[in-house]
Amino acid sequence: MGKVPSGSGHKSRKRGSEVCQDECVEGDDKPITVFLVDDHEIVRTGVRAMLNAQEDIEVIGETASAADAPRRIRQSRPDVVVLDVRMPDGSGVDVCRDIKSESPDLAVLMLTSFADDEALFNSIMAGASGFVLKQVRGNDLVTSIRTVARGGSLLDQGIHDRVVRRLRGETNDPDEALLGSLTERERRIVELIAEGKTNRQIADEIHLAEKTVKNYVSNILAKLGMARRSEAAAFAARLTSSASDGPTADPPPPNWP
Questions:
Q1: Helix spans in 53-153 (H)
Q2: Residue 171 pLDDT grade (very low, low, confident, very high; cuts 50, 70, 90)
Q3: Tens digit of pLDDT for each residue in 55-87?
Q4: Contacts of 172 (CB under 8 A, 6+ apart)
C-alpha cells in the first residue's frame, strides 16, 4: 500500500535525521503518504502545511467530499487517510468502512471536533486505527500518523473501556447518555453551536434551510433538557474535555487550524 514508483519526485526520508531516526524501517526510504478528507479548507490547508514540513511525511491528495473520497483514495493509494468524521455530503465512518473493505491494511485516522462516543464506537467498528480531536497539538497529530503508518493503534485502555461499555449498553456518564439520544445530524449541529455559529451559518454549513435548522435546535434542546443554546455549547465543551482523559492540551501552533 502507498508505494510510489521511483523517479516520481516524491520526498525521501533522510537516513539518520532526528525525525527519521526512530521511525524509519530499514531499507525503506519512502515517505509516509497521507490523504486528507475534510470539508473545511482551512483545516486541510493547515494540516497539509504541517505534515509536508516533516521529512518523512507527504500529503499526496485531499478532498472536501465524502462522496468523492473512496475513488480518490483508491487512485492515490496512500499509507494513511486522515478522515473527518462528519461532512455535509456524507459520513466519514461510511467512507472508512468502504475503503477498509477494499484495503484492509490501509491506516485510517478519524478526525473530529469533539468527543462523541457514538462516532468513536462506529469508527472503531468500521476499522479505524485511531480517533483524534481537531484540538490536538500539531506534534501529536504527526506522531499519531507515524504510529498508525507502522501498524500501531491509538486506542488506549481508556478508549477501549468506553467502547466495551458501549457494546454492553452500559454508561455511568450522563453526558454520554444524552449524546446517545441525538441523531448524527443533531450531533453535528451541536458541534456547530459550540463553534459559536448562528442558525443561518449552520444552515449554510450543512445545506439546510434556516427554518429547518431552527427546528433542529429546538428538538436538540428538548432532548437534552436544556432551554438555551449556551447550555448546548457547554455540553459540547464537556464532551471535548472528557475525551483527553488527562491534562488539557497546549494551544495549537500557528500553522494548526
A1: 69-76, 92-102, 117-125, 138-149
A2: low
A3: 999 999 999 999 999 999 999 999 999 999 888
A4: none
Ordered by where they begin, the domains of the chain are: 32-163 (3.40.50.2300), 173-243 (1.10.10.10)
Q: CB-hemisphere CA count at 13 Å for 20?
A: 20
On the CB side of 231, CA atoms within 13 Å amount to 13
Report which of 10, 65, 8 is spatially closest to residue 36, judged by C-alpha positions: 65
- Going by C-beta distance under 8 Å and a sequence separation of 6 or more, which residues neighbour residue 101? none
- At residue 58, φ and ψ (nearest 5 deg) are -140, 130
Closest CA to 67 of 106, 101, 99, 102: 99
E strand segments, 20-136? 32-37, 57-63, 80-84, 86-87, 90-91, 107-112, 130-133
> What are the residues facing 58 on neighbouring strands?
33
The whole-angstrom separation of Cα 88 and Cα 85 is 10
Highest mean pLDDT: which range of 22-31, 45-54, 92-101, 223-232 = 45-54
Which pTM value belongs to this model? 0.58
- Strand, coil or helix: 8: coil
The predicted-structure confidence for 195-239, as pLDDT tens digits, reads as follows: 778 888 899 988 999 899 988 888 888 887 888 887 777 777 666
Residue 58 has, within 13 A of its CA and on its CB side, a CA count of 18
